[in-house]
TrEMBL record:
Keywords: Methyltransferase, Ribonucleoprotein, Ribosomal protein, Transferase. It comes from Pelagibacterium flavum. InterPro entries: Ribosomal_L11_MeTrfase_PrmA, SAM-dependent_MTases_sf. This is 50S ribosomal protein L11 methyltransferase. GO terms for biological process: methylation. GO terms for molecular function: methyltransferase activity. One of its GO terms (cellular component) is ribosome. It holds the Pfam family PrmA.
Length: 188
């Protein structure tokens, strides 16, 4: 993966000494990628959208586990480049899209993957509205998250738990549970 480590060129993209958000393996993406790697039936033979792909980790996991086609989407052009380069490093093929899909139509892909997009309240509301529209069109939706404040737990079914250390915490920190979820929408 093309991530923010001292020997990578990613540091050249830093603003005020801070590398871009996508230059880390965020725990939601990491737990979702882990879950896909151990449960390939989620993506195998299907078309997949990795919403907010960042580094491309989740898209790459889907491609490695037999997805028919993978579209990695993000709003940051550098994230798109990093995802393409990281896919090449892993000898998999993904398509990329530089776009904000949240207010648009339901995408054609059968499976929607979402890692760590519930970090701000207003943004989380947009993501939930988008996912609800996707669910109404029979898309299968999987989410990875370490328990962020704005995660809509009442719309999720936990399908896997993995111990992870959150990005930015010291390596000596105690791992906490990160979840892979199936997005099921509002309960009746």
């Amino acid at each position: 993966m093309h991530l923010a480590v001292p020997q990578s060129g990613v540091w050249k993209l830093a603003r005020d000494g801070v590398p871009p958000y996508w230059a880390w393996c965020w725990p939601g993406g990491l737990v979702l990628a882990m879950h896909i790697m151990t449960n390939p039936q989620i993506v195998s033979g299907r078309t997949v959208l990795d919403l907010g792909t960042g580094s491309g980790l989740v898209a790459i996991a889907a491609a490695m586990r037999g997805a028919n086609r993978v579209l990695a989407c993000d709003t940051d052009p550098n994230a798109i480049v990093a995802a393409r380069l990281s896919a090449a490093l892993n000898s998999v093929s993904i398509q990329t899209s530089l776009a904000d899909l949240l207010d648009g139509p339901v995408p054609a892909q059968e499976v929607i993957l979402v890692g760590d997009l519930f970090y701000k309240a207003a943004f989380a509301r947009r993501v939930v509205a988008f996912l609800d529209r996707c669910l109404s069109e029979k898309r299968q939706i999987y989410v990875g998250d370490i328990g962020r404040e704005h995660l809509p737990r009442d719309r999720m079914l936990s399908i896997g738990t993995y111990p992870l250390i959150d990005f930015g915490e010291p390596a000596t920190a105690e791992p906490r549970p990160a979840h892979a979820w199936r997005y099921i929408g509002r309960m009746a």
